[in-house]
Design a protein that fits this description.
Blueprint (H helix, E strand, L loop, with lengths): L11 E3 L3 H19 L4 H15 L2 E7 L5 H15 L17 E4 L7 E8 L6 H6 L2 E8 L2 E3 L8 E4 L7 H8 L4 E5 L8 E2 L2 E2 H6 L10 E5 L2 E7 L2 E6 L7 E7 L2 E2 L4 E2 L6 H15 L8 H4 L5 E5 L2 E5 L8 E2 L1
Parallel strand pairs: 2-16, 4-14
Antiparallel strand pairs: 1-18, 2-4, 3-4, 3-19, 5-13, 5-14, 6-7, 8-11, 9-10, 12-13, 14-15, 17-18
Length: 320
């Protein structure tokens, strides 16, 4: 994944639209009233949660651990939210209208961990903005070994001595990978050919041609620790090594914004969506409402806020 030259965040303005607020309030009232007629407090609570869940729209971040793919984690999140609201979880293999729309922007490999930006409801249309934002990673590498996948999941293809490599050697080499450079995408990657990931084709033994080099902007790379054979880098572009943690994507950081799995609840996500107006986005963006009212940009309800973003045909975010 290439880091963009400028961090891009989606404009957010306070939503005072009576249509949006009225529609959400009416939906909640209808669900609660229907459950109340049954005389069950539990059903009233579930109906209110379901209505609240379906009214959520926006973007937030979760903490992806090592192990599951980004898509698997998204399915787990969706199932937890539907279960909390007492709503049925749709069968994944059957084509049917999805009751809850969620998606992620910027895939993390199964061996990687860190910030994964998630869109919910109409907020899934905002995920392209997250893909164009800058990213930051901490990578742990191992000297003396090369693998076919360029990370710890692959087969070792070459081993060389590393005892003469110094910290100064690594720091000198890192300077060659900063700034605007041309990077050849690895064959084991999420890039697709004929609708299938290159990594999947490679694992099946298919012949895959290397993609041409493309421009990448690397803002900085620094050596945080050097204990041969291991070394730790902090970088603002992507690398696949022994261990990879994404600590930032767009305005979201791992330490401050990524929800761990024990906080994947409707209320926690609602609070995260609200927080983007007060902590993530510049105050001056809220003043753009009056200038945007006559534009053709799409208006997206975000619970208590409205997101405005022009639709793009090349949206590559994953939506489930």
């Amino acid at each position: 994944m290439a880091a963009a030259e400028i961090e891009v965040v989606s404009p957010v303005i306070l939503d005072t639209s009576p249509d949006t607020l009225g529609s959400s309030a009416a939906s909640v009232a209808t669900e609660v009233a229907a459950a109340a007629r049954t005389g069950s407090q539990a059903q009233v609570s579930k109906a209110a949660l379901a209505a609240k869940l379906m009214s959520l729209s926006g973007v937030f971040a979760v903490h992806k651990p090592k192990g599951p793919t980004s898509a698997e984690l998204l399915n787990r999140l969706k199932e937890k939210l539907l279960a909390e609201a007492g709503m049925p979880s749709p069968e994944r293999n059957k084509r049917q209208k999805q009751t809850l729309k969620v998606g992620h922007g910027g895939t993390l490999d199964s061996a990687a961990q860190g910030v994964l930006v998630v869109g919910i409801g109409r907020g899934t249309k905002m995920l392209t903005s997250m893909l164009s934002g800058s990213k930051r990673y901490i990578a742990i590498g191992e000297l003396g070994k090369a693998t076919d996948t360029l990370d710890s999941t692959g087969k070792v293809t070459e081993e060389k001595p590393y005892d003469k490599i110094t910290q100064e050697d690594i720091e000198g080499i890192l300077q060659k990978f900063t700034g605007n450079i041309m990077q050849v995408p690895p064959l084991y990657s999420a890039l697709k050919k004929d609708g299938q990931r290159l990594s999947t084709l490679m694992k099946r033994g298919k012949v895959v041609e290397a993609r041409p080099a493309r421009p990448v902007t690397v803002h900085s790379i620094s050596l945080l620790e050097f204990q041969p054979p291991f070394f730790t880098l902090e970088l603002s572009s992507c690398a696949s090594v022994l261990e990879l943690t994404r600590t930032k994507q767009g305005p979201f950081t791992l330490a401050q914004h990524a929800l761990p799995e024990d906080r994947w609840t409707i209320d926690d996500i609602a609070r995260s969506l609200e927080a983007c107006t007060s902590t993530l986005l510049p105050e001056e963006l809220t003043s753009k409402k009056s200038r945007s009212e006559n534009s053709s940009d799409q208006v997206l309800s975000c619970g208590y806020i409205t997101l405005r973003e022009t639709e793009r045909e090349d949206d590559t975010a994953k939506t489930l």
